[in-house]
Amino acid sequence: MAEEQKQRLFIEQLKQVIEERAAKKGSPVTCHITTMGCQMNARDSEKLSGILSEIGCREIESEDADILLFNTCTVRENANEKLYGHLGIVKHFKKEKKDMLIGICGCMMQEQDEVLRIRTKYRFVDLVFGTHNIWKFPELLYACTTERQRVIDVEEETDDFRDHMPVRRKTGFKSGVNIMYGCNNFCSYCIVPYVRGREKSREPEDIIREIRALVKDGVKEIMLLGQNVNSYGKTLDLPVSFADLLRRICRIDGLLRVRFMTPHPKDLSDDLILAIRENPKVCRHIHLPLQSGSTRILKRMNRCYTKESYLSLVKRIRTLLPEIGLTTDVIVGFPGETEEDFQDTLDVVSRCEFQSAFTFVYSKRTGTPAAAFEDQVPPDVVSDRMKRLIDLVQSHASRVADRDQGTIAPVLVEEKDRHRDGYLTGRLGNNLMVHFPGEEAWIGQMVDVELVESKGFYYMGIRRD
Length: 465
Ligand code: SF4
Fold this sequence. Notes:
single chain; Rossmann fold; six-stranded parallel sheet; binds iron/sulfur cluster
């Protein structure tokens, strides 16, 4: 708590610094956060945004802001290059605006080589910090703004979770909640365990306290976040399973929906399936990354399950939760993938009837074991396989969506439809979207909607309550 109070103190001091700067320039101090990557990063950006807003900065859409932060991703090599592309542009902004402060944080800053590159070749970057000390942002920003010197502060590992800083949510009625950090799985293509560190879980009481406060603040739906949520709790002094955490969270009054992202097929227990079944608040949607349907490739990926065990898991889920919407991730062209391996992937995709799938072309990531695998699949073979996979996913997806056409289901209204005047867009429990005529005042409410027409990946509907 002492550390939190210290950061609060920096926030108070920063308020004064920002106020003085605004008075000097005759307009509010502006800020912008460019977020790359996954939902964990999106949540981290909400925390950064909360702090910036608390100290009096005004968030703007453009990167030409007084305080500019890049919250980076490093999952793919081209994600790193994306940052350098941005830096090439904003360097010119800074030439025009000497007081501009440019900061970089996120997973990429947990890589020593990248920090060295920034330190030596991008001298106009003022602030660098990593994922383990994001909670120290007020202190680092204060040092940077008052001492006008570069601050580079990256920690390799931490046991500290500080999730009590101000947060500025993108939407008032939905929020992500980190339940754990890091990953122990070391899938052979993935850099995350090297940059986010070993798996660590937050204490359940801490998570429950955060969710209660969110609900009090108007949140109706939460997304529990972690790299591998269903191995939650294993590292706690008093271990708690993810299933039990979910049961406890569902008892919170006023909370209407709970989602989670991402479970690993190897750790998804029968108890978790039962916990979902017992609790109508848990949305009937599971994102279950497949990656490949070939046992041989799964072994090379170090995924720790087989084609058969994945299929049997899906069967158990569907038996106990017949209404579940399943989605997945698939990597095409992993080194050594033969046509026979790919046929296994198509076979699993056909049998699991996914509602949708994120399909990725394998991309070599320096620093992972798979980057050293030699038998890369030629690009023309990969693109042909990708096309066949997408066709298959789409045909199943539209068949799955057609089944619910004509039913009435609860929808959380999220926003105005971006393409049709007078329409709203909402989300079903199974994660599919519905567009229907309605009033802006309904945004943030749960309403019953008839799914009048299935459009494959979404529905057109009419409110029926
Ligand atoms: S489970 Fe595998 S893919 Fe997911 S973060 Fe961990 S190592 Fe990466």
